[in-house]
Each structure stands twice: as C-alpha cells, then as structure tokens.
Structure prediction request, 203 residues.
Amino acid sequence: MRAGCWLSWKRTAQPTRKRAEMDHERNTINAAVVAAILTILGGLIGVPTAIAGQNQGEQNGTKQQTQTDATLIQQIRSAAPASIVRQATVISPQGKVLKKGAGEWVCRLAGPNSKAPACLDAQFRAYLKARSQGKTPHLKRVGVAYMLHGMTTAGMRMPPHIMLVVPNRAAFKGYPTEPQGGMPWVMKAGTPYAHLILPVGGM
Prediction:
C-alpha cells in the first residue's frame, strides 16, 4: 500500500472506529434501560406500593431508631423490584449487615440525609466511592441503582427512578441535562460524576 493511501485510510478509519465505539456505548445504555424497565415490569406487584408511598421511605427514616431489624429490612428492600432484592445484602444506616445476600446487590438508606431506600450494584457503588473521595470513577461496565421511593436532593423532589452510570460518559451526549416531563435526563452533566436518571413514577 502506498504511503498516501495508508494515510488516507488512517484518517478515515479513526473517526469510523470512534463512531462505532460510541454506537456500542449508546446501545449498551439502551440495553441497560430496557433491562431495568423489564425488571420493574416483572415486579409490578410491589412497585405501585413503592411509588404511591414515595415520600414514606424518607419519612420513615426519622423513626429508624425505634424500628426492629425486620421492619427496617422491609423498608430498605422496597427500593427495588423483588427480583433484585431477593439476593441483595441489606445494610443499616450504621453499617450493620441486617441480611446477608448472595449476589452483588446492596440495599441501604441513601440520599443527602440517608433516609431514602436504594439498591445498588457493584459498579454503581464503585462510582459512589470514587465520587465521595473526589476521584474520577473508572467503571468496567454499566452500573445501576434503584430508588423506587425517589428522594429529595438540592431542594428538588425526585420521583421514583433508576440511575445508570457508564464507563464512557460521552455516551450521554444528546440527553437532556434537566428534568423534562418524565424523560431520561443526565444529572451532573459535564462532570466526572454524570449519570442518567430514568424516572419511573412521573415528574
């Protein structure tokens, strides 16, 4: 191959490869969104209760000192569909393991005041650890967190939602960066902590 032809091929191949990588990232996000929705649809028996009482999770947090472990476990596990929490480890606000699980999922109280039930996979926990340390998250795959009670953060009431984090944040390009009528949107866009919010209970 002549040098001129090689350089021409190299210039065209690089953007093509980059587009392919971006398409792969976006397809990965879409697949994760679909999987999360299907998981919720598969557990619809418990979801309406969680959504209807989305404020209750935070309100109950103020009474956690008087709760029995069984009651607290039930409250925390209501953050996600049954198929997720069935094998999840449940942790108290003090870090005590209330129920040992067999899978990667961990359910606990989260949010600014640690009053909102949440269930997080290993990658989402790695994201939160890096964020708490002021470091850039380095993820191996898509991370997922369920918060079917929603939460209040920065003065904004967020409805029940799922959160996604990805290895390549550029894949979030094109999504809104503010809530828009219940559509997926990116929180903390333009930062190392950008993550996709997928509302499941309306805005």
Notes: The chain has a mean pLDDT of 78. The longest strand covers residues 106-110.
